[in-house]
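Quick one: structure tokens for this chain, please?
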Amino acid sequence: MPRSGEKTIGELASELMHELRTLFRQELELFTAEVKEKMACVVKASATIAVGVFLIYSGYLVLLAALVLGFATFMPAWGAALLVAAAFFVIGFVLAKKGRKDLAKMKKP
């Protein structure tokens, strides 16, 4: 028999289970809050990257337009646009072919 003021094993076990449930619930809430905070940072960083990539792409397009306008000073505008487009198609094709060849080399032992 327990002395007065002391708890029985059943009461101690019940109290332990209650404390464990409370601890688990608190840890889960903390984990959820941390995940939400990290996701907010990831979303913000992703949006910043997306805006940066869009601006880089826009600058690239303006650079191409400037290249066409530069060639248009000594040839017809349609010819300048055709020349720049053809050059970029050829460069793009060569790079894509090289990349494909490099990937094929990686697959072979």
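Residues 9-107 form one domain.
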